[in-house]
Write a structure and sequence with these properties.
One of its GO terms (molecular function) is phosphatidylinositol binding. The protein has 185 residues and is mostly helical. The protein contains 6 helices and no strands. The two termini are 37 Å apart.
Amino acid sequence: MRRQALDVFVNRIASHHELRQSEDLRTFLQAEEEDVQSKVSDVVLGKEKPVEESDAEYEKLKRYIFELENHLAEAQKHAYRLVKRHRELGQSLSDFGKAVKLLGASEGNALGKAFSELGMKSEILSVKLQKEATIAERANAFRRQCELAETMKLKEINLDKLMLIRSEKVAEAEREYHEAIEGRE
């Protein structure tokens, strides 16, 4: 079962339009088992560090993602402020509605009735505004929880990767991963 899954994986890699032209892939697929094991052992044991290539398109995409993340964080701050103002507006509208209803109660004629109706409508609108603010707050909290779960998963993957190559950055990655776990709880 595992061997079949590995065969499927290798076939998918070999059929990729860019990877099928890779000299490293060709060497991996054509090399003798002992050569591959020796090379992997050297990398794992730290005798030979893997080559980390950086191409311009990757760097451009990476920079774009970091900028996008900053813009999204800024948008989230603005959304939080907007929700807070929405809630405050709802509370003010509720207070206004109560005051106008009291004013209507003190007036006995048609003007009093109009004030009372205005106060009731104002309180109804206030309830709607506060519900919207609560829904927005819940959506923001859920989004934040998803972001934290994703961050934790990425840190875990990074830690596993660093542990495989026995990098000097393992301790730092472990610390970040444990901080992410503690921050989630």
